[in-house]
Amino acid sequence: MKYTPFYQEYLENQARIVDFAGWALPLEYTSTLSEAKAVRSRCGLFDASHMGQILIRGAGALSLLQKLTPNDICLIQEGQQQYNLFLNSEGGVVDDLMVYRRQNSFLCVVNALNTDKVYRWLRANAEKNVEIIDVSTNTALLCVQGPCAEDVMQAVMGRDLSDLQYMHFIEGDFDGKKTLISRSGYTGEDGFEIYTAWEDGIKWWCGIMEQRAKYGLQLCGLGARDILRIEVGYPLYGHELDEKINPLEASLEWVVKFEKDFIAKQKILDAKREGVKRKRVGFVMQERAVPRRGYSLYSQGNFIGKVSSGTYSPHLDQFIGMAYIDSQYEQEGTLVDIEIREKFCRARLKSYPFVKLGIKHKGT
Questions:
Q1: Which of the residues 110, 166, 193, 354 could staple to 52 if both were Cys, CB 3.0 to 4.6 A apart?
Q2: 11: CATH
């Protein structure tokens, strides 16, 4: 089992701890629903130090990333970040990631489950003029998310952050600690992600927690994170993404820039021309029933797909989810049946986000 720098803080705050991708992480501190509500209404603090961080530098760094990803990294400048995908030779998703463009390098933030796989895969595809370094075990990552996130961070840092736009980041020595701070997150709310040295993470934690009472900040676990990302339709690797799912099927065509060359471009172009047979869609249950991953969907008695993620949304007071279904049924408003505990329960297809995004700026 792996432990983040904040494990002792979990214990002191009576977190319910679970094994997530080999890491001991908090599922919840008080309750999953109250934590999710806090992020939408005020502010929440997440520990994401389990995420993988891979540094890529050298003369061939940009060309390597451009080759392996469908989004165009040339669209972002130094100090900006971009959502992207690593693709395999068949067009499937090796992992989804955030790319941070720094002065002389790129920081790729990948899923904890895939860190080792992605690191080996990058090295296997890299030329001699590229250096690839796994810095995951040296980096602590905290996420402050919610409408009050800017106020919290400004109080902690003692500086105005209103000019830091969404999907942009700053780097520097903050209180003597080298840190990268981005305006981004996995909740659909305004927020910040703080990357700092492993041993310096606790200082940031304590500084943020000093603002707890003033801004109603709440510690949040994996359960709240899952609710929040489903409410805004964000995919999770292993649920909505894997190596057999291409970006078009995943409703991530906006990530694919066909104007540039990249691995499996022709296969994805072929899929676009022929039309994909399955598609990621959102749905809202029309009755009180919990849709769980793997449950089957039907239309007029015909099997059409499976649920990839489902949850109860405290903000809608409805059960919602995402699924992969036969693309001929993907039209919004289509009524389907989901088999839940040997009973067919009605659901209506609905485009995501299910809740209004709280972020202020559109990313690249």
A1: 110
A2: 3.30.1360.120
- Which domain CATH number covers 273? 2.40.30.110
User: Largest Cα–Cα distance of the chain, in whole Å?
Assistant: 64
d(CA 240, CA 308): 6
Domain shared by 222 and 310, yes or no: no
Average pLDDT over residues 17-36: 97
Domain count, the chain: 3
Whole-model pTM: value is 0.96
Percentage with pLDDT > 90 across the chain: 96
Helix 61-68 crosses helix 115-125 at what angle (to 10 degrees)?
A: 110
Residue 124's CB is within 10 A of a number of other CB atoms, namely 7
Split at pLDDT 50, 70, 90, the class of 362 is very low
Nearest to 45 by CA among 258, 205, 255: 205
Q: What is the mean pLDDT of the chain?
A: 96
Instruction: List pLDDT tens digits, range 116-171.
Output: 999 999 999 998 999 999 999 999 999 999 999 999 999 999 999 999 999 999 99
Amino acid at 175: D
pLDDT of residue 359: 85
Domain contains 248: no
The residue out of 119, 135, 151 marking a domain boundary is 135
Q: Regarding beta strands 335-340 and 343-349, do their DSSP bridges make them parallel or antiparallel, or are they unpaired?
A: antiparallel
CA gyration radius, the chain: 20
- Clarify whether residues 178 and 155 are in a common domain: yes
Range of the domain at 145: 7-49+137-231
Q: What angle do CA 104, 108, 110 make, to 5 degrees?
A: 170
Quote the CA–CA distance of 245 and 239 in Å, as a whole number.
Answer: 10
Q: Please count the other Cβ atoms lying within 10 Å of the Cβ belonging to residue 171.
A: 17
Picking from 78, 87, 141, 74, the residue whose alpha carbon sits closest to that of residue 109 is 141
**363 within some domain:** no
DSSP H or E run through 25: strand 23-28
Residue 124 maps to a domain: yes
